[in-house]
C-alpha cells in the first residue's frame, strides 16, 4: 500500500464525519489565528514605533537625566534635575562638542488651557526656536517663536490643530489669547494635523519658549531633556563621547559609573524597542499557543473515538493483508490532515482579523498603522499544526495498528 493510497484512505475517513472533523479542528484554527493576529499586530506596532523614532532623524541624540536605567530604581532617576543651564552652555561651546549642529532644551508636562469659556487638557512643551527643524514641524498658519522670544521669555504659543479646534472652533486663532496657569499667551502659530509624530502627538500640544515654560508654567530651573543633532551621521558616536566628557566635567564626575545623565541615539532606541516588542510578541504568542495544546488533546480524543468506531474496518483491512505500518500510517495521516487543514484555515482567519484590526487602528483611531502579514509566523504555524497532528495522533494510530484482526472482526 503506497503513501498516495494511504492519504486517499485517510481523507475518505475524515469526509465520512465532516461535522466532527470541522469541530475537531476549531482549537487548531483559533490557536493559529491568534498567533497570526498577535504576530501581525506586533510587527505593525514595531514598524510604527521605529517609524516615529526615525522621523527624528538618525543624527539625533537625546540626553536624559539619571544614569542608563538598569533597574526600576534607575528608571526613577529620569525625573531628576541634573541637566541645567550650565550644561547647556558647556555643550554649546564648539571646543567641547565640535560636531554639534543644533541643541534644544526640552521641558514638558500636562495641564489645562483655556480660551474664553472653553478649556482643554493638553501636553505643554517648552523648547527653543530649533524645534521646527529638529521635529520637522512647521505651522501652516502663523509662525514659530524666535531666538529673541526665547531670551525674553515671551508669552507666545504655537498650538496643535486639535487644540485650535477645541478652543476656537472654526474661528481664527492667530493673535488671540489662551490662558495657562493663570498667564495669558498669544497664539502665533497653528500646526497642521499630523497625528502621532516622533513619539509625540503635536495635534494635542502647545509649544512655548522653554524659558517661558520654566519661569511661568512649571517653576523649574532644569531641563527634562536635551535634544542634540550632530552635523553628520558618521560623527554621531564621536559626538556622544564628547557630550559625555563635557557633562562629566560640568558635574565633576570622575567615575563613569556615577554618571547622573545618559545619552541615547535614535539607533539605540530603535534597537532597544525592537527587542522589547519582539520579546512581548513572543510572550503573547506563547500564551496563544496554549490553545494549540488544547486543540491537540482534542485531536487525540477524537482519533481514539474514531479508532474505536472503526474497529471492524481495521480488522477487515488487516484480514485482507494490511500491515500494522499501513494502519499506523493511515491514522497518522488522518490526524496530520486534520491539524494541517486547521492550520490553513487559522492562517486565513488570522490574516483577515489582522487586516481588520489594522484598518481600525489606521482609520478610526487615526494612527499611522500599517498591516503586516507575518509570513514566517504563517509558515511556522502551519508546520507546528502538522507536528501537533503527528504527536497527538501517534498514540491513537499505534493503538489502531496493534489491534488483532480476529478480535477486531468480532467487535460489535
What does this structure look like?
- The strands form 2 sheets. The chain has a 6-stranded mixed barrel with strand order 2-3-10-5-7-6. A two-stranded antiparallel sheet has the order 8-9.
- It has 2 domains: 3-52 and 276-410, no CATH class; 60-265, no CATH class.
- The chain is built from 16 helices and 12 strands.
- It is of the alpha+beta class and 412 residues long.
- The chain is elongated.
- Helix 1 packs across helix 14 (324-364), helix 3 (26-54) crosses helix 14 (324-364) and helix 3 packs antiparallel against helix 15 (375-401).
Properties at a glance:
412 residues; alpha+beta; 56% helix; 6-stranded mixed β-barrel
How is the topology of this model organized?
Elements: H1 3-16, H2 18-24, H3 26-54, E1 60-65, H4 72-75, H5 85-92, E2 100-115, E3 118-127, H6 131-135, E4 141-142, H7 147-151, E5 156-159, H8 161-168, E6 177-180, E7 183-190, E8 196-197, E9 200-201, E10 205-209, H9 210-218, E11 225-230, H10 236-250, E12 261-265, H11 266-288, H12 290-309, H13 311-319, H14 324-364, H15 375-401, H16 405-410
Parallel strand pairs: 3-10, 5-7
Antiparallel strand pairs: 1-11, 1-12, 2-3, 2-6, 2-11, 4-7, 5-10, 6-7, 8-9
Helix pairs in contact: 1-14, 3-11, 3-12, 3-14, 3-15, 5-10, 12-14, 12-15, 14-15
The proportion of residues in beta strands is: 15-25%
User: In order across it, which strands form the biggest sheet?
Assistant: 2-3-10-5-7-6
Would you count the extended β strands for me?
A: 12
What is the typical, i.e. mean, pLDDT?
80
Could you list the spans in which at least 5 consecutive residues all have pLDDT below 50? Answer: none
Tally of DSSP helical segments: 16
N-to-C SSE string, H for helix and E for strand: HHHEHHEEHEHEHEEEEEHEHEHHHHHH
